[in-house]
Model the fold of this input.
Amino acid sequence: MSDVRVVHSHKLSDPDREALRRLLDEAYQGDFSDDDWAHALGGWHVLVGDAASPIAHASVVERRMIVGARELRAGYVEAVATLRARQRTGLGTTVMETIGNLIRSRFDVGLLSTGEHSFYERLGWERWRGPSYVRGTGGTAARSTDDDDGIMVLRCAASLDLDATAAIACEMRSGDSW
Done:
């Protein structure tokens, strides 16, 4: 297996960023937007492969989440991808196990949005069963029913007691808020 690297966004060189964007564009088959790219930056990246040719990736960025009346520092997972020719070889599991360890050591809770529940559930993630909201400017919250079925949580020491049926809210951002 290739080496696993953990690197902060600000430590990625321009060639690293270009190679990573190529991986994401290929893995998402052209359905990876500039907003998705912006969401993946500003935190930690877990990469498998060398800098010029990454073959698997996931990133985690800090976001503020409100669960019920409680504010949490969330490690939000973005841009999980494996080169199509290398999918189903354990590389996605490798990057997500490393991401899970990063989240547990640095954040109150881990969150992500996906349609691939079974992959994440076997890694300790659980589906959020409560209603989801997006907080706009001024603190107003709008219901985000389309996102309810995709939100998953990774509990950390500070979030073991979270009620997974409570309302959860993220801050609005460009592109997909969740």
Summary: The chain has a mean pLDDT of 95. Residues 91-106 form the longest helix (16 residues). The first strand starts at residue 4 and ends at 8.
